[in-house]
Design brief:
Blueprint (H helix, E strand, L loop, with lengths): L1 H14 L18 E5 L5 E5 L16 E5 L7 E3 L19 E5 L9 H13 L3 E6 L1 H4 L4 H25 L5 E6 L1 H12 L6 E5 L24 E5 L15 E3 L13 H11 L2 H5 L1
Parallel strand pairs: 5-6, 5-7, 7-8, 8-9, 9-10
Antiparallel strand pairs: 1-2, 3-4, 3-6
GO molecular function: lipase activity; serine hydrolase activity
Protein name: Lipase domain-containing protein
Family: Belongs to the AB hydrolase superfamily. Lipase family.
């Protein structure tokens, strides 16, 4: 029931908003009525968010899953959220190290190459606790608005994970990192958790249904979600945020799509993580 409550609360806010004017080479409706998207696997998709489903048919149900990685465990440790008031006990978590949480975006998952590479880069760079949020059961929905609205539910679940985790573990420094819709998952996490979130890094936070139509900061990633929010724009005005919504916003090559040497989201993220911004993210 909480899932449907969160979905329909988000839908009401989205439907009650006014779309921003947006001109593009594909026509005046591009960005407001539809948009093209290349997922992590290089597959082409068309998002049509001009209309929303009128019934339950076609909705793909699912949940979020959490996997902990450290330098001490090569295989992931599955973190389950207790249904009662019990805390989460981990055999691998080191409370003296920073905690970094990574969330993927639409049509992606925890096994995406960039997610695994990013986790490996972090652990090579520092002795940290890394949690990967896998919400692919909800993100792999061809109806983009449902995946977009699911970010609120996943953010709440991640917030509950942090709250439960903090009952038995001291959280030294919490850094949330998300790409596309995953950036909004991290925004909701920061908004709902009782844990102090020190930093959120948004990698091209999704624009459709978050910046267009215009909605309030409680329904998208913004600088109120953590002590410090930094956003990297590499597809501004198309898939990602065009405006500045963080404490610090970075626009490599003017933040526009078709970044030099990159083809598709996989290479854009990979190049971002392997250049000077890696120092900022980690």
């Amino acid at each position: 029931m909480n899932f449907f409550k969160d979905v329909f609360l988000s839908l009401l806010c989205l439907l009650g908003s006014n779309a921003l004017p947006y001109d593009n080479e594909y026509g005046p409706d591009y960005g407001n009525e539809w948009i093209m998207f290349i997922d992590d696997k290089g597959m082409n998709h068309t998002m049509d968010f001009s209309t929303l489903p009128t019934d339950d048919r076609g909705i793909m149900f699912g949940d979020a899953y959490f996997y902990l990685y450290t330098r001490q465990n090569n295989e992931s440790e599955i973190l389950n959220i207790p249904d009662d008031d019990s805390p989460i006990i981990s055999k691998n978590f080191n409370s003296s190290n920073e905690l970094k949480v990574i969330a993927h975006g639409w049509y992606s998952g925890s096994n995406a190459e960039w997610v695994q590479n990013f986790k490996d880069i972090i652990l090579r760079t520092e002795d940290a606790n890394v949690i990967i949020v896998d919400w692919s059961e909800l993100a792999d929905n061809p109806i983009y608005p449902w995946s977009a609205c699911s970010t609120r539910y996943v953010g709440k679940r991640t917030a509950k994970l942090l709250d439960k985790f903090s009952q038995a573990n001291q959280l030294n420094y919490v850094h949330l990192i998300g790409h596309s819709l995953g950036a909004h998952v991290m925004g909701y996490t920061g908004m709902f958790t009782n844990v102090t979130v020190d930093r959120i890094t948004g990698l091209d936070p999704a624009r459709p249904l978050f910046e267009i139509p215009r909605i309030g900061p409680n329904f998208r990633l913004d600088k109120s979600d953590a002590k410090f929010v930094d956003i990297i724009h590499t597809c501004g005005g198309i898939y990602g945020y065009k405006r500045s919504h963080g404490h610090a916003d970075f626009y490599p090559n003017d933040g526009k799509p078709k970044q030099p040497g990159c083809e598709g989201v996989q290479q854009v993220i990979g190049k971002t993580l392997n250049n000077e911004f890696l120092r900022s993210i980690t």
